[in-house]
Amino acid sequence: MTDSQKAVVYVRLKEGVLDPQGVTIQKALEQMGYDEIEKVRTGRFFELQIDGNAANIDQRIDEVCTKLLANPVIEKFTVEKA
Amino acid sequence: MKVGVVTFPGSNCDYDAYAAIRNILNEEVNFLWHKSDDLMGSDLVILPGGFSYGDYLRAGAIAKFSPIMKEVIKFANEGGLVAGICNGFQILAESSLLPGALMRNDHLRFSCKYVNLRVENNKTAFSSCYKEGQVVRIPIAHAEGNFYHFDGEVEKLEANRQVVFRYCDEQGKITAESNPNGSLNNIAGICSERGNVFGMMPHPERAVEEILGSTDGLGLFESVRLATSTMTTADAQ
Question: Which residue of B has its CA nearest to A25?
C-alpha cells in the first residue's frame, strides 16, 4: 500500500504576453500607496492528488498540463511534487 | 444545405443560429447534442456562442473533449465546413482547429455592442457573398475575444490570407479605437490554412433581420450555402 502523492501545477502567461489583470492590479496597488511594486503577473495553480501506485506519473502530469491545464499558445507551466 | 448546431452545456446562442438557418435561410438545421457522436449528415457544423462548461479553466477548454467534438475534429480534418461563433471560435482555437488563442479583453470588461468589420478576404467559403473591403455591422458580446498568437505566426496568418474579418471604423479604416478587445492586427475572424474551418468573435446570427438592427450577418450563411451547393455539384460531376 502506498499513500497518494501530491503535485502542484503552476500555470503562468508566457513572457511577452500581455496580462491585463496583472496590469490592473499593479495600478490599484500604486493607488493604494504600494508604488514600489512595479509589476504584477497573474497565474493559477492546481493541486493534484495522485494515486501513489501510478506509473509514469511525471510524463502523465506533463500530458495533463499540455492537453488541458495550460494553453501552450499563451501559457507555460511548472510542476512541483510534494 | 444541411446545418448542425452543437449544443454544449452553457451554449446560449444555439437557438439564435438555429433560427437564422431555419427561419431566414429556410434551410434544414438540427441541434447536435454534445454527448452525441452523430453529425447527422451536416454540410456545415456551427459551434455557437455561449459559455460552454461555464467557461471553467479557460473559455472553450473543456468543450474540446466532449464526444461531439471528436466527430467535429474528424469532420474538419476531412475538409468539412465548421464555423465557430464567439465561444465557438474559442473552442476551435482550444482544439487547435484554428491557430492562436482568445485572451481576456485588454480592458477586462465584457463588451456588448455593434462593431464594424472589414471583409479582408472574400475568397473563402464563409465570405464569398461579401465584397472585399466591404464594411459590415455585426454585434459582439464577449469578455475573451482578444486574439493573440506568438511572433511569426500572425505574419503567417496574414501571408496566407487567413484573416477574413478585421475590426474597423465606419469608413473601413483599421484603427486602435475600433478594436474592441485588443486583438492583434484588429483580427475579428480567421479561417484555417485549408479554408474549411472558420471562427469569428462577432455574432452574424444576431444580424440577419432588419428588426434585429442589421442584416449584415446574412452574407456569411449565404456564402456557406453557395459553397455547399457548388461542392455538391462538383461531387456529382
Answer: B108
**Domains, chain B:** 2-236 (3.40.50.880)
Ordered DSSP codes for B76-124: HHTT-EEEEETHHHHHHHHTTSSSSEEEPPTT-S-EEEEEEEEE---SS
pLDDT in tens, B52-64: 999 999 999 999 9
Per-residue confidence (pLDDT) for residue B230, from 0 to 100: 82
Distances in whole angstroms, Cα of residue B10 to Cα of each of B54, B66, B67, B168: 6, 13, 16, 30
Q: Does B10 touch chain A (CB under 8 A)?
A: no
Instruction: Decide yes or no: CATH 3.40.50.2020 for domain A5-81.
Output: no
**Per-residue pLDDT tens digits for B163-208:** 999 999 999 999 999 999 999 999 999 999 999 999 999 999 999 9
Q: Is B107 a known active-site residue? A: no
